[in-house]
Amino acid sequence: MRLPLVERKRQLEEVLAGALKGPLLIVKDLPADAALFKAMLGAGLEIEGVMAKRRQSTYQPGVRSSDWVKIKRPGWQEGRVWTG
To answer: 3-class SS at 7?
Structure first.
């Protein structure tokens, strides 16, 4: 649990290598900026928001940390289900 996010993601990809045949997608690191989020929405992605995480953050079970920030989509209706 003390490993940084980038190392945990690397290990997850290693464990799941070759097993990703379903709808699971491991997203590569992307810059955390408003332009990217607007582009995602402009492309028609039906997403509630984006989780921004510091690359060197550690996993802290049960703790709300400033290392993880949820950027919500303006006007998103809570409880909406996307069936894409």
So the answer is: helix
